[in-house]
Target: Glycine dehydrogenase (decarboxylating)
Amino acid sequence: MSPTPATHPTDRHRPTLAELERGVPFADRHIGPRPDELSRMLEVLGVDSLDSLADRALPAAIRDPEPVGGSLPAPAGEADMLAELRGLAARNTVTVPMIGLGYHGTRTPSVIRRNVLENPAWYTAYTPYQPEISQGRLEALLAFQTMVADLTGLPVAGASLLDEATAAAEAMTLLRRSGRSKSPRFVVDADTLPQTLDVLRTRAEPLGIELVVTDMSGGTLPEGEFFGALLSYPGASGRVADPAALITQAHERGALVAVAADLLALTLLTPPGELGADVAVGSTQRFGVPLGFGGPHAAYMSVGQKQARQLPGRLVGVSRDADGNYALRLALQTREQHIRREKATSNICTAQVLLAVMAACYGVHHGPDGLRQIAQRTHRMAAVLAAGLRTGGVELAHEHFFDTILARVPGRADAVVAAAHDAGIALRRISGDEVGVSTSEITTVAHLEAVWAAFGVSAGPVGELDAATPDALPAALGRTSEYLTHPTFHEYRSETALMRWLRRLADADLALDRTMIPLGSCTMKLNAAAEMEAVTWPQFCDLHPFAPEADTAGSREMITQLETWLADLTGYAAVSLQPNAGSQGELAGLLAIAAYHRSRGAHERDVCLIPASAHGTNAASAIMAGMRVVVVGTDAQGDVDLDDLRAKIAEHGERLSALMITYPSTHGVYEAQVRDVCGAVHEAGGQVYVDGANLNALVGVARPGAFGGDVSHLNLHKTFCIPHGGGGPGVGPVAVAEHLVPFLPGRSPREEGGVGPVSAAPHGSPGVLPISWAYLRMMGLEGLRRATLTAVAAANYVAKRLGEHYPVLYSGVDGSVAHECILDLRQITKDTGVTVDDVAKRLIDHGIHAPTMSFPVAGTLMVEPTESEDLPEIERFVQAMIAIRGEVDRVAAGEWPADDNPLRNAPHTAACLADDKWEHPYPRELAAYPAGGTLGVHDRKVWPPVRRIDGAHGDRNLVCSCPPPEAFA
Model:
């Protein structure tokens, strides 16, 4: 008998046509726990809904009575979002970029685009702080360092910086601290990229550095003392001149020299190191990295051996593992800001790893011969272009150049630029009388002919002109030294070989595509494919950052929308997306506060209060902003000690500039008295900076701008889904209250009290902004709120499940944590000798990435599950930690020696398990498959390529470029 209509399955819960058309909401895909899983988690927590959890965990004083974010539209599905984004992209006009200014057309080899840029094995990886499961990206970064060191002629290169302008600023401060001169003056070549000059001014002023911008084309340095100099090679105008004499003069006068160099030009030109330079900086953008309207791109810095331990940022070094095998790691990690704090010389705590990997792969793909050929093509295009212009009577400013010519056309510059634009080519208008033209690997003969036509020149047959035109590089500067001689740059030239190399490297890593990465303070959440899709659309990725405004309307509208949404969600008046990393957002926020005080005549306000638990970059950023750091204590619950805060405020009185706090706290707790903290600072005339590192616990439920913050930086690579990329790219927009809006980076002219830019491109790193735009557009306000509270539920679930095995160090007044929890292993270590390192490395045997180690409290693990992990994966981590505790107990019982057990010997490689000599007191199977394989380890087994790495050996024997092949023997 057929069922009656009343009980037929198609009638019971039949959705409407509108609901069917909408499909499954994106939030249901982004948020990991299914409804029944979430119910089980909430049951463990003793609450019946996310709302009840919010009532319990969040202090009423900070909560919005209802979700606030009025500018954010109702959530769109994936297809509708992409259609809307295509509409914005269609409003951009992509022209042939011949503007130059450090940004050039390039071709991303398809094998690199698909296998790196579009591959979650690469873009979802975290910073390689666990080197045993990061050997792939470390090897790629070592290739990057080797490529840069070879091309610049300086032996030590870092693993990338944020952009060329900030790299030049880092070079300025490096020269100051490593030189002997006490002079505050820094000399800069007037022929430096204008955006670099702007960032140098921003960074120099609060540090008391006096910039002396001078024309050095005559070969002489200015009078007086100075601690360092920055030369450009080639210059912004395209001019190529030998800097050796200037470098010698500077050294004779006790100064050090940095050279901003075009890496592609160095395949043809004598490298800076051979000319005597102490430091070289620049960009690797033209090594296969799309323009992206200005970024992200990996900058480089290389130095001599004397400056190796002064390098800012990250440095990959060669060490050895427990079996004596070759292994890679981040070297000199004690330079990291969370250790050096107010003694830090830089606030850089990230890199542009994904882009550095792409640039390195470009070098590996083309090899030395291929790079030289690309450089020769680029230069010949410029030389023939110049010859054609000269035949038409156009005066050129320089005889010697690499890829950029400066043409003098009195009164005709606007007409020339307009005519070229009509032909689909963007040139650089320098003045009403001068036009700059730059060639690149994508320049064609047809482009040359279109440029000649724009200038009103008929150059004749190109072949004849080419045959009659000599190169335009100075003969004395021709490169004679070899580069990229290491086998890495010769063995992977076919696409098959490169594809397999990239697969081998990816298999040596552990990224979010294979496992949960439960890192406290780092929010490793889903980076959805739909969010990533637009990153490689030509209308976004092929825009030059200084293209005419009419050509970039779609991108600028997207940026404006994103800034508005972020301002609403955080409770601030305005947002600037220019800072291209969280550290730069911090600096921009503090510079805004300092400028605000100056505008009110309060020049004496220079004290920045920072809790002892704060992120280390906070203190470093305060120093860079010209402030004095005063540490405020924390109480037994990990909260800001109000009594100590009031005492420090009273002590420093009229000198108080700002308080920097992280909310929820760095300890993973919603501090109930945060309004009292903010109120005390405001009452004393100070400003409150709320670090947005933990914003994933606030979005949709509370807004820092509404509960006391004056300024915050946000991490789009954490809360708003831009992937970490192995340690970058990041975006760190700064959000401010109304009274600070004039002091956003670049918002007001410097001469009017403005701050100036903090990154090279006008909009920072807009190439990755479609990711965050798409995330917000698809989640909507209610989806964001759900995500926040699910993240809080996941953290509390972990704390509850593991609390009986590992003490949870801090919690709120009701026993709840925020979006992360700290597991205290200090007593375990004291009783058994088992350390946080041992636990972290044993998790590798379980196929799980370790939580954050020993931050903010030494001897602890900080765990953040995020909202996008489902219950089975969370439970897999929980069970692994319980199994590890069982092994700890066996050590404590004396069953295994403290120096020979599965924890101390972890991680275990396949090679060590296959060794005939197995002399450990535990079986091989337990080493390989913890808990007898009951945790799903068998079917998800990750074999680490190396055993535990000897960090001290690597720091004592600093090797920062690819070792010879015999090292692998």
